[in-house]
Amino acid sequence: MAWTYGLLDAMKDPRLQIHNDYDIVIIKDCYPKAEVHFLVLPWKNIPSIKDLTGSHLPLLKKMDLKGREIAREKGGGRKFKFGYHAEPSMKRLHMHVISDDFNSVSLKTKKHWNSYTTGFFIPSEKVIKDLESIGRVNLPSTSQCSLNLKTPLKCHKCSYLPGNMPALKLHLAKHVE
DNA sequence: GTTCTAGAAC
DNA sequence: GTTCTAGAAC
Question: Nearest nt to A168, CA vs C1'?
Fold first, then answer.
């Protein structure tokens, strides 16, 4: 499927690049799911989080550090999440740098929501800790991933349980103000 | 990953 | 009748 390789073109596009050096690039997500949403990618051909080993630690620590730096510089004081999807749809390892308002017209589905707010989202710190301790990332199983994505909607900041996506989006607006 | 839309849910 | 979601896309 051609669309799974979309990020390989996007990361080369200077119009999307926020930062670019010899081993990593940071781009704006083309369909941001929050007010600020960047992707940190290595130039090295690492297809997915499943391919990571201890040898990637220096690179992952740099991606983490640069991601936090960009969030500080471009985040306008917003709070951020840093991490990876357990089962990404697109090729090339990419770390999400996403502001925790989730205020975006591109946030449309339950899958979108649950991919950032359940165990489907693997924080960057955990990826690094797993590689340091066991030399690989301990990921949820395929069935655990599927359950995470189908979990009933829940607000990430309070106990509110929205009945559907429009209700969630109305509720999120209250946390922003 | 998105777009589109049938039919479920209300 | 309208809103919303889930699944196909050759």
Answer: C4
Nucleotide nearest to A89 (CA to C1'): B1
Q: What is the pLDDT of residues A33-82, one digit of tens each?
A: 999 999 999 999 999 999 999 999 999 999 999 999 999 999 999 999 99
| Total-model pTM | 0.97
- Look at residues A162, A136, A41, A125 and name the one whose alpha carbon lies nearest to residue A90: A41
Cα dihedral: A62, A3, A13, A52 (round 10)? 10
Phi, psi of A123 (to 5 degrees): -60, 145
C-alpha separations of A132 from A61, A107, A117, A136 in Å: 11, 34, 25, 8
Find the Å distance, CA of residue A102 to C1' of nucleotide B3.
21
Spatial distance between the Cα atoms of A122 and A119, rounded to a whole number of angstroms: 7
Per residue in A97-115, pLDDT tens? 999 999 999 999 999 999 9
Residues of A annotated catalytic, as ranges: 94
Whole-number Å distance, CA A95 to C1' B6?
A: 36
- Conformation bin of residue A35: beta by default, left when phi > 0, alpha when psi is -120 to 50: alpha
